[in-house]
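quick one
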Amino acid sequence: MKKILITRKLIYSSEKYASKIFFAKINTKDKLLTNSEIIQMSNDCDGILSSITDQLNEETISKFSSKIKIISNFAVGFGNIDINAANKKNIIVTNTPDVLTDATAEIAILILLGAARRAKEGIQWANKKNWKWSADFLMGKQLTDARLGILGMGRIGRAVANRARSFGMKIHYHNRSRLNKDLEKDAIYHDSLKSLLSISDFFSINCPSTKETKNIINSETLKYFPDGAVISNSARGDMIDDEAMVQALKSGKIFSLGIDVYNGEPNIHPEYLNLPNVFVLPHLGSSTIRTRTAMADLAVKNIEEFFKTGKCSNKVN
Ligand code: GLV
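structure w/ glyoxylic acid:
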């Protein structure tokens, strides 16, 4: 039986499934393991089932036992793993695509709506109990007929587009390459980020975090937006330069921000918590029972497939 380290607690049924087919060392207390603990605990293992809270950098991976053949990440994003370092050690890295598309798109829409309709201020007023209805109370921005720019038209971007269409939004996008007609539907392709941003009354970030997309929303690119745009980020925190964003939110250049992911999680830029026009959630994108169970099962299956066949359909390197 192969031995695996599961670095974080999973859904119980998925832990049971993993324990049936592997000798699984499970972090049942769910304490965040340090990188040295991961190195030490995985020393006699054939694989690791990691989570986005594990920062598997070059130094850590270089110290992994040569027994380790697979890192199965419990996420679709794998920016927490140094892929070059894994390649050097002949370790395959896998992710959990598809199963979290719908749940993440739902959160993308929730934060877009939360930001546009001033949900944070609304909740604060409701809690104070002394709010009064008036014709101009907490007027927000309406999605109907507005242009939604989507950065990254992969599975999640397209799922966001489908939901946004039902609000009557006009879909625009920028992607590494243009989609074929079937996938594009009525969406309008922009071959440059500048062109997309300049029409984005609303904007949703749905691309992977890479060297190219790091700080892609910064003091320069924020200038391209129409005044009073609404931005949402349900992908990864490092795509936004937080200081530049805070300035744009304070000046009103950006009307509001809906955000579920942060630079240096679990830290959240203190101004995001202070500013009334930032609607924050603590990285809930894929957090539904159905999706987290499917992700955990898939992360286990990826390891099973790899040890059975020597390959894995969800390999990313
Ligand atoms: C969640 O953030 C994921 O990448 O799966």
